Structure formats: C-alpha cells, structure tokens
C-alpha cells in the first residue's frame, strides 16, 4: 500500500492534560523528540479551551482522575464538538484496569489507553504511531485540497473550450445558411460558390487547428505550456477571419502591432472574447471596431473600441458576474463566462482590465499584456 507524502509542514502538536504540573513536565520530557509541540492544561475546563482554540492539535494525552471535570467528561465534550471530534485521545490513568472501566474510556471517545506508572518504551511507541497516522491524515487533506483546485481548473477549462468554439461555429453555420438561402432564391454562380466554399474550408481548417491547440494545451501544466514569438497583427487577422463578422461591421487593426513572446492560445482567447462581444452587441447600421495598442514599458496596453450601444453604470457592474446577464441586449443571452475567462487570463499576466463606456457612446476595453 502506498501512503501519501508525509512531509511535515506543521509540527505535531500534543495537548497534555493532568491536574499535577509535575506529571506534565515528566510526560513532555518523555515525548519530546525535538520537533513536536506541546500544550499543557491542568484541568478539564482548561483542556477544552485549549482544544477549541488550537486547530493544529493532533493528539490529546488525557488524565482520567481530575477534580471538577474528569477525563471521561472532557472526552465526551470533545467528541460532541465538530471542531474537536476527530482529535485522537489517549487516556492516562492509575486507577482500575478491569475491562469494564477500560470500555467506558473507549465509549467516551478514547482511541487508546495507558496505565500509570507509564512504561516509557510503550508510551513512546504508541505516540509515534499516532504521529504517523496524523501525518497521513494531513497529507490526505492536502491531496483533497489539491484535487479540488484541479477540478476548479478543469471546470474553467471546459467553459473556455465551449465558449471559444461557439463563436466560430456560429459564424460557419451562418455562412452555410446564407449559401443555402441564396441557392433556394436564386442560382449561385460557380465563382461565388467557389468563394463561399473556400471560406468554409478555411473556417474548418481554423477550427481543426484550434481544437488541436486546445487539446495540446490541456495536456500540459501551466509551467509546461510553451511561449513563442507571436505576431499580434497576424493573430488578429486569423481571429477576425474565424469570427465571420457581418458585412456591415468593419474591423480595423491599427498598425503597428507588436511581436510578443507569450502563450498564443491565451492571447487569442482574450481577443476572440472581446471581438465576439463587440460584434454581437453592435446595433449600428454601419458597425466599426478598432483594435490598437500603446507601449507601456515591459508590457503593451491593447484596446478594442466599438461604436455599439455602450453600457449604463448598472450594466457595467454585472459585466464579470458569472451566470448573471450583463443586460447588453434582449436578443442574446449571456452567462458572463467569456468575460470572466478574459479577466482571469489578463490577470494571469499581471495586467488589469478597464472598460470605458457610456450609453450611446460605444465601448472601449483596455488590457495589459507582458511583452515576454
């Protein structure tokens, strides 16, 4: 059987409980191995306070015979409290060793029993076992936390894939419907048909390439994902082509655009999200989208500006709320997933996102991206 890593990030903490301070000192000296931490209590009430206050306690060595509140009562309280019920308890006692008395200890929550006078070798061996069990428990908790993080990352990745594939697929389907409609209403010339088929073929190749890139990206950790020299102008041209913007919307790339040493997929996702939204919500007979940039030291500040409907202050506050519509338009619902992905990707670069907009005045989104 393979146990998880037991690398000790925090010291193994033992709560020693005995109404006689000299017994506490002897027990600490016996169990101290240089790496353990000890907390001492001389009464049942003090023991409960210490157990509730310190969430790193891994073991309680609990004397049974104490005034006011004996060890059995302390154990009973500990086991009924959600915060302390999983702490291992070893009863330490000099009184009756008969089976009935021992069983009462186990019923109250003890996991082991030591009789006074203590045998030093047996005491050390038992505590060593509980320390190893505690280490395994901590390692399993860390593994569970790491798995939860990985699951969240996978969930985000699924959103990214679904959202980024939706826009080009929608454009491709729209083009197919247009060709189908023209064919029904009027014949299509061979020249026009060849042009449309070329566009469809290009879109298919782009989607295939995009899926391959995403699959490769998913197989690698963040550290393994390779950066490369990216010509931003070429990247934007490819992205715009893949989105199939309607003829009434003009998209302008304001040159010059930089060369960046970065992860291509992430930058493409940001531009695709911004352009997709700018196209989707544009309400003008002649839509216009400008993409430009400004050098900012070791980063570049990009902007995507449109002449669409703009947004109210209330709509802006909803922009990055997952699964809450931003209220841009009644024509199309929005989950907020795309904008959350965009914000996450930009912040990974140490950058920030800024939206400048007002009703009827269009919208400008600015974001920073490191040059390398």
TrEMBL record:
Keyword Zinc-finger applies: no
Modified residues (4-aspartylphosphate): 63
Single GO MF annotation: phosphorelay sensor kinase activity
Protein EC: 2.7.13.3
All copies of domain Histidine kinase, residue ranges: 160-372
Catalytic activity, as annotated: ATP + protein L-histidine = ADP + protein N-phospho-L-histidine
Domain Response regulatory residue range list: 13-131
Pfam families hit by this protein: HATPase_c, HisKA, Response_reg
Keywords: Kinase, Phosphoprotein, Transferase
PROSITE patterns, per database record: HIS_KIN (PS50109), RESPONSE_REGULATORY (PS50110)
InterPro entries: CheY-like_superfamily (IPR011006), HATPase_C_sf (IPR036890), HATPase_dom (IPR003594), His_kinase_dom (IPR005467), HisK_dim/P_dom (IPR003661), HisK_dim/P_sf (IPR036097), Sig_transdc_His_kin-like_C (IPR004358), Sig_transdc_resp-reg_receiver (IPR001789)
SUPFAM superfamilies: ATPase domain of HSP90 chaperone/DNA topoisomerase II/histidine kinase (SSF55874), CheY-like (SSF52172), Homodimeric domain of signal transducing histidine kinase (SSF47384)
This protein's name: histidine kinase
